[in-house]
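Everyone, describe these structure tokens:
***
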Amino acid sequence: MPLRANIFKPALNTDAVKPVYIILQCAVAMCFIGHGAFGIITKPIWCNYFAVFGIGEALAYKLMPVVGTIDILMGISILIYPTRAIALWLVLWGVMTASLRPLSGEPFAEMIERAGNYGAPLALLLLCGFEPSVKSLFSKMKQPVSVTAARLQLVQSALRIAAFLLLTGHGWLNLLHKKGLIAQYNALGFRQAENVALVNGIVEIAAAVFILVRPNRTLLLVFFIWKVATELLYPQYAAFEWIERGGSYGVLLALWFICAPHTKTVHGAQKSVITS
């Protein structure tokens, strides 16, 4: 049953707990398995991130498979035996690895564009509840049968912020004419790739603001499909790039589920109708 709220707190779909849990669990696993794969194949740009800690290129290439293996194991653990400790670690690890991008000289937009990496495990942690005890941290998280409206509202807020950040970050990178994005537009046959990037950037940032203020299920579904499709356009490591962005897809899709369908009055009674 959907719970109604005001314009800044959209109605919640209390029947969405199960699908949201499954979506976030899969999204977190995808994100860290995909990220770990880059460590296994020793992606050269990772040398820049190791350099932030003063680690040279030779040692960086030796450490990449180790870090990648740990990432993959963490991702698999979320599928097999999810714990709050692992989910919390993945939030912190996601923030740290994303922050290495601006620290290594890349635009700040690169950090917030990866909000799905830390937003998805955070939302999963909030959905399952958190108690500051060793037993709670390391016991297996179970899919909640039901949650309070307050907790569901907290999860929705976390998803809205994550969606806002990842869309704003990607839009910002378009406005900055990121080399990789321009190459994608050129490969698709656009003659004025910079203009395409400008339009896409404005649209994505506008959508991000709208989703933060008042999530719209149609808009969320459109951008979920958009992200799933456009992440396939990377010329190198396409499969790994697509899998790593699982957090982005998961945040948008989970938010679509958690936002209740619009309602309208029929003969004086409230009746749920899907309008998006």
Summary: The beta strands are 2-3, 12-13, 263-266, 269-272.
